[in-house]
Amino acid sequence: xxxxxxxxxxxxxxxxxxxxxxxxxxxxxxxxxxxxxxxxxxxxxxxxxxxxxxxxxxxxxxxxxxxxxxxxxxxxxxxxxxxxxxxxxxxxxxxxxxxxxxxxxxxxxxxxxxxxxxxxxxxxxxxxxxxxxxxxxxxxxxxxxxxxxxxxxxxxxxxxxxxxxxxxxxxxxxxxxxxxxxxxxxxxxxxxxxxxxxxxxxxxxxxxxxxxxxxxxxxxxxxxxxxxxxxxxxxxxxxxxxxxxxxxxxxxxxxxxxxxxxxxxxxxxxxxxxxxxxxxxxxxxxxxxxxxxxxxxxxxxxxxxxxxxxxxxxxxxxxxxxxxxxxxxxxxxxxxxxxxxxxxxxxxxxxxxxxxxxxxxxxxxxxxxxxxxxxxxxxxxxxxxxxxxxxxxxxxxxxxxxxxxxxxxxxxx
Length: 413
Hints:
Largest sheet: 8 strands, parallel, barrel
Radius of gyration: 21 Å
Number of strands: 8
Number of domains: 2
CATH class of the largest domain: Alpha Beta
Strand content: 5-15%
Distance between the termini: 33 Å
CATH superfamily of the largest domain: Aldolase class I
Order of helices and strands: EHEHHEEHHEHEHEHEHHHHHHHHH
Shape: globular
Strand order of the largest sheet: 1-2-3-4-5-6-7-8
Number of helices: 17
Helix content: 40-55%
């Protein structure tokens, strides 16, 4: 089961926008002449907050595929799983994002470290690896990543025992590490994954800069470009020399709305002839809120204002699970009374991610990004509003994915 060249993680908090997401991907696929594989993803944390199940994600995907007559490859992703929660995803998922960031820096046994150093020194000499393979550097790599790689192998084999060999796609995620991985780190991580028998097809490193939820990249785009290309070179080497799957590619997490990076990602990937996996999650939920606000329907706008007002009151609670991937400046948030005095279209303009627009408010956007828990607490009213305004909301979702994301990624007119 090899993942297609380009794949797109279509997160959907409330499992209502499968068709809109798929329409955007099908349109872009037709224009570039290559399928962009939809991967419907949802993490255990999101399931717990919303009260959903992996089976619901699969139903959403199946319904969208059937309704649009889509005949290409598609997957459902058990996003950011670990050994404590993987079993609940086994039956309904065929893509597993194995998250081992919490295991980075945990000490491995001395004999395991010495064995790693011995085989790595030998491999570096035999394969002429283009990285620092000194004993001191290998000890540093082992101290940081060896335990995490072992954990990835343990989880992968557990999934394989349940799903069967070759019946799922594996991703390894290290993007929530404190520091990015050097080219040497990355090469030796890939080699150890190969030795662990992990047939990894996408890998999410910790890139330079900040990938905050729902807003553009914060950092030096030039430094990111250098690092992205170095990782791309490491993947080419790993496929050629370590026997990892030919479909192996980089995965960009919190990848929605990183508009300044999309031309870099697209051009470097094209130059190397290798695809990428881009994960999006909350951008669809945000477009639902924007779509409801745009309708100017009294009940829908009232619900949007309620979500924002309660989000301000519960800001610390809502932000806590996302503290490492948001940067909200409290002084940038309008008060609930200010928002209550605005029209739905004014609220939509503040939330819609159009850099440079005079009404765009990234702090307000980030807060609403993490406020889907409030919609879940008002589930009946929220779903009823979505159903009454399904066409308008779906058009917002589709336009966001196609116009703001896919057109920039693939340099479409």
